[in-house]
């Protein structure tokens, strides 16, 4: 909520973004609804700030600058090429998202993730209607 800009140094001048880019790794047409989009966001945010404030015991930590290492011309070329590839609706192979890679032609709704050296595993549910669209 309101604590994030102060403690993660996200306040200040906003970066220029292309149409549809949010800067959060997804696009405006993502369909994601914020849990506070019902109009009670102010009260919920204030409550969260009050609950979390006791955990913050340090001044903000400076972070590296967010300047792009690419020239404006190079970045525009990259975005143009990326949009061209997206328009072709190509599906990458060797990542498990192509229908030809699925066992029995079915998308795997569960991914097993290994943790640490002890062999602990967790199953993560990956509903097709949510994750596949984001993966490709």
Structure, described:
The protein is an alpha+beta fold and 136 residues long. It has 2 domains: 1-90, no CATH class; 95-136, no CATH class. The protein has helices at 3-7, 41-53, 72-87, 128-135, and strands at residues 110-115, 120-125. A hairpin with a 4-residue loop joins strand 1 and strand 2 (120-125). The longest helix is centred in the middle third of the chain and has 16 residues, at 72-87.
What is the strand and helix layout of this fold?
Layout: H1 3-7, H2 41-53, H3 72-87, E1 110-115, E2 120-125, H4 128-135
Antiparallel strand pairs: 1-2
Please report the number of helical segments.
4
| Uncertain spans | none
Main-sheet strand order equals 1-2
- Report the span from N to C terminus: 30 Å
| Alpha carbon gyration radius | 20 Å
Task: Give the helices and strands as they follow along the chain.
Answer: HHHEEH
Return the domain count.
2
Q: What is the total tally of β strands?
A: 2
Overall pLDDT level = 77
Report the sheet-strand fraction. Answer: 5-15%
Q: Assign the structural class, choosing from mainly alpha, mainly beta, alpha/beta, alpha+beta, or little secondary structure.
A: alpha+beta
Morphology? extended
Specify the biggest β-sheet: 2 strands, antiparallel
Helix proportion of residues, in percent? 25-40%
